[in-house]
Amino acid sequence: MTRYIRHAACFCALLLVALLVNAIRVQVFQARAHDTNPANRRENIARYGRERGDILVDGRPVTGSRDTGEQLRYERTYRDGPLYAPVTGFASQEYGTTLLEHTEDPVLSGSDPMLTPFPLWNDFTRRRNPGGDVVTTLNGAAQQAAFRGLAGRKGAVAALEPATGRVLALVSSPSYDPGVLSGNSPGVGRSWAWLNANPDKPMLNRAVRQTYPPGSTFKVVTAAAALDAGVIRDVDAPTDSPAPYTLPGTTTSLSNESDGCEDLSLREAFRWSCNTVFAKLGVDVGVRDMTATARAFGFNDDALRIPFSVARSTFDPSVDRAQLALSSIGQYNTRATPLQMAMVSAAVADGGQIRTPYLVERTTTAGGSIVDTAGPRPVRQAMTPETAAVLKELMTQVVTEGTGTNAAIPGAIVGGKTGTAQHGIGNAGMPYAWFVAWAQGERDMQPKVAVAVVVEDASAVRGDITGGGVAAPIARAVMKAVLNAKE
Amino acid sequence: MTKAGTTVAPADTSARAVRLPHRRGIELALIVLAVLLSVYGYCAVGLARHGTVPPGAAGYGAGLGVLAFLAHLAVRLRAPYADPLLLPIGVLLNGLGLVLIYRLDLETPGDRAAPTQLVWSTVGVTLFIVVVLMLPDHRVLQRYAYVCVAAALALLIVPILFPAVNGARIWIRIAGFSIQPGEFAKVLLAVFFAAYLATNRNALASSGRRFWGLQLPTGRVLGPLLAIWLISVGVLVLERDLGTSLLFFGLFVVLLYVATGLTGWIALGLLLAAVGAFAVGWLEPHVHTRVEDWLHPFASIEAGQGPNQLAQSLFAFAAGGVLGTGLGLGHSVLIGFAAKSDFILATAGEELGLAGLSAIFLLYALLVERGYRAGLALRDPFGRLLATGLASIVALQVFVIAGGVGGLIPLTGMAMPFLAQGGSSVVTNWAIVALLIRVSDSAHGQYDDKETP
């Protein structure tokens, strides 16, 4: 019997070896495949097991983390959620991340290898880095001024520092509180459904993801093209422009909101926003030079990231002369994001230079040591410095004695341009009220802020007066907030 | 007999002439080590989860220590020649099981299982002490073979009268406690098989006709055995407890082979197993699903229903890797309701890693090996078969459940000896260790022996 007991013992030993081999198979050879299986929740548990880093405005966090004690432990909270939603986006356990929460996720979630001082040691200890912080370029006061100015109306505001490209304000209205999407409770699903079904589209970032016909504010670009191309050599010389203006090759006639535009000089036509003068000017410059100037200002660029992507602003290069005439006054296929129009204004303020806008000043570890800072940004010459100087003067006149007097700030030099963009079939929709501007405080060496404001469905009398009446006060509040800010 | 057999006889005489040392001091030292390791496990869980030593650590440690010490005293008193490894392995595995269950309790605050498990452990150790103190000689059990088998069948039949729990009719619930009578039945059946085969092994091996090279015993000898086996398997199919059925079958085949030495029994056993497995897999949807899950553990993920228990178990093992996440730092609770019972090994695999898992497997292997060793050292056939049977129960059970949760074989609901939550299981395993202690004491000590080898 001894022999058979030994056989049975050998059989048991074989079973043990099979178990050990199987354990090695699962725990060593298949481990990576199992760990990365999308159905394996461990990665998510680890991700939400730490407090997420914060997004900072004026050195103070506008985000936070709430310990729920649940399996996905920390949920995102937002201070002034609706105010900063167009910048932060949301960080939802259920629906992922957007905007800065998305582009800066490696830092915020702590997975960025740059957060680790000793990578090998961390691999050994399995320690996870705490999430790092993202310091934005935003000016909280300007952001609030813009948000208050819009007062829940549909619209957007973008403000830049012309000399650097720092984004000072980015507001979209109506907004939403991203905090309602943070967790994974049934309430989050209801909020998601409600926000998506809402006809006002509160989750749409109108400042960077929505394009509008820029209307008369585009005349800044057309004027720059005319001056750079040498079509206009003297801003005070009368132009050869009829009013009303029959679009070339058609019988359609274009008129103005105000009278007396016939043969007006560029200075006067800019001040009173004469459509006829600028439509003809665009045709005189030609589609090639108009397109080149528009592109230099940033139109037709798919690649802009601030760091999240910005919708492409368009100037259609394949137009006939009649369409070019309409394109040159910001209609037809010409479309721009509010951020793009702020860049146009900033270029005028900064001697014709366009600096790529950016929203992240620096990223830091949880301890505050710097991980990455905003490096030098590409600079592009949108127009000659001389042209910029002329346009600065023209824009200043709009505010001092033109359609944009509502933007004037006592003691500061302010330049602006109003716009009213028609939209809808047969101009059936309510017009968009636009205002683009820049401002320079009395002690400043150069303009401190450039801003673009758009208000949809401006419920006022049609005409340029709308941009001046509805949008200019908002731009003024934003610029004032920036000029008053203590350095 | 064989060459190996002939070497036993002189060893026996020498054993009688020169008494083996008691080695109780080694046992005590190992028990202290086992208790300290368990307490260390508690502290590791508490430190990992809350940054402090858990308040219950001293209590649990003291409880486990007192139980182990009393068991040690019983062995010292009544089984001084017993193998000194058996009791410490039992204490360590039971302590480790308590740590793992306590650790999983932290994830399910509404459902604490560790205190109950400690109560059952106490019952188990008490039973151990009673067996060691009251059973003077394992051969007494041989007389009660038919009482044992009657009791075993009764225990197997009773749960049919109770409602099914999670698809299996293997539980009876009394006064808040749920008992799994089938667990006790396996020790009783081992006693019966050992007694019956010890008596009839010569008849089984040499009587009857030869058929296809197999020595078939006469129906008079084989009949009762087959009948009891069929009844037990039939009951288990009715109760849908595939694991226990497999265990009984494996135990039956191993003991039959050891008793008769006929290789044909293994061939016949495997053939019966194949036919049975095919029939059950085909007819029984509960089992059929298990086989499908084993073949395609991620099918439910692809179907968009999320990972099933087996997939979660594999994720847990994989997350542990070689060194494990550390006690208290894994997420094996994702496995769901069976995490503390059938799938407790996944928690060990995740938090202790391949290293810890191998250590646990080796502890079981050591327990089994010590059981076989006691069987080899004994001279009476009943004792040899009993020791072999008890050790095989542990080995088969570990293989079936560890192979199941690791994706090696189809999953069968079974408790990992000592580790898993389950009172009946802990009590039964303490009974097994008690019998092995008794058997090994007889093997290594002097006993007045009237039987010839």
From TrEMBL, chain A:
The keyword Flavoprotein appears for this protein: no
Domain Penicillin-binding protein transpeptidase: 155-480
GO cellular component, one term: plasma membrane
GO terms classed as biological process: cell wall organization
Keyword Signal listed: yes
Entries under Pfam families matching the protein: PBP_dimer_2 (PF21922), Transpeptidase (PF00905)
A GO MF label: penicillin binding
Keywords on record: Signal
PANTHER family for the chain: PENICILLIN-BINDING PROTEIN 4B, PEPTIDOGLYCAN D,D-TRANSPEPTIDASE
The protein's name: Secreted penicillin-binding protein
Record lineage: Bacteria, Bacillati, Actinomycetota, Actinomycetes, Kitasatosporales
From TrEMBL, chain B:
Membrane topology: Multi-pass membrane protein
Membrane-traversing stretches: 28-47, 53-73, 85-104, 116-135, 144-164, 170-198, 219-238, 250-283, 314-337, 343-364, 385-409, 415-437
One Gene Ontology MF term: lipid-linked peptidoglycan transporter activity
Protein name as annotated: Cell division protein FtsW
Major localisation: membrane
InterPro entries per record: FtsW/RodA (IPR001182)
Top-level taxon in the UniProt lineage: Bacteria
Gene Ontology cellular-component terms listed: cell division site; plasma membrane
Compartments where found: Membrane
Keywords: Cell cycle, Cell division, Cell shape, Membrane, Transmembrane, Transmembrane helix
Organism: Streptomyces sviceus (strain ATCC 29083 / DSM 924 / JCM 4929 / NBRC 13980 / NCIMB 11184 / NRRL 5439 / UC 5370)
A biological-process GO annotation: cell division
